Input
Amino acid sequence: MNSNFFDYTSVPVTGTVGTPTDSDMSLIRKQALADVAPEEVFVFSVRASDQAYDSFHSRMDDSTLRNYAEDYLEGRSLLRNHEPTQIMGRSYNGEYKNGSTLASLYVVRGIKTSDIAADDYITGVRTGIFKDVSVRFHGGTQVCELCENEILSRACTHLPGKVYEIAGKERKATYGIYDARAAELSHVWKGSNSNAVSLKAAQLRALGKLDDKEIAQYNRLYGGNLRADMERVDVISILAEDLKTDESYLLRAMKIYKEVNLPYWERKDYSEEEREKAKKSGHTLPGTDAFPINNAKDVENAKHDVGRTKHDKAKVVSYINKMASEYGVSKIGEDK
Ligand SMILES: [Zn+2]
Output
């Protein structure tokens, strides 16, 4: 099943930065095949994770934080943006301390193992340009704190972040992550742990348990777009386990999945008349009938569909930005 989830913290660098101590060196040497000199490496420590709720309403349980510490002591890659090709260094120590996991990392000076040279990366870390970190984790269980079922099980009908009334009290749905393991550690421009939430929203929608109002609420809560999020997640795989018990459920999910993968003007909420109207008023990509835009919502949808256009991307972007000005919405890249 889906094993790539991300655990993000924006409170990163802590402790030693720069030259390794003798005890750092003895741990670094355990990672290396041949001897390493202290001058060869740059070390720093980050707070890799803690127990705070993130913006997607999940929190790491102590069991996970202690596992992370073991994993970073054992040695995990230090990457940028969770890209396997962007190896910057390696962890050599991990420590669980007061509800946080600290990871110690080393970078070898003077080499180039990614798009940027190690020395440039070191300067970036030292000066605080590379700051926010995120753990890619696997395994473990993600448990809803309202109903104590696994968050992606059908038994749980709660969308993280949404407030439910339970026994006369308002409670926000949150979830905990138990006994997960760290796969790597990355510097990221902006982290998130949205995957489980997107999956949950997609699943609830497929089950008919998320109406239009709630979809709008989801988009507001997460500053996102459920349709776009559903394109990112493999809805079919989370729903496949239900085929055995409920075939219509899977068929419905496939229909939604197919629909969200269509460009907005081919989705059922976009009519032929709207398309004609746009064409007549010159609100299509110049010289074509692609990207019809009649209102602000179309602009938003068009922005999400830029990635798959077969037309000249620069022209599409400039056209959409022109429409964005006309309908008073943010241009591409201006979204918060
Ligand atoms: Zn639940």
Remarks:
- The pocket of zinc ion is lined by residues 144, 146-147, 149, 156, 158 (CB under 6 Å).
- The longest strand covers residues 87-97.
- The chain has three domains: 5-140+182-187, 195-260, 281-326.
- Residues 5-140+182-187 form one domain.
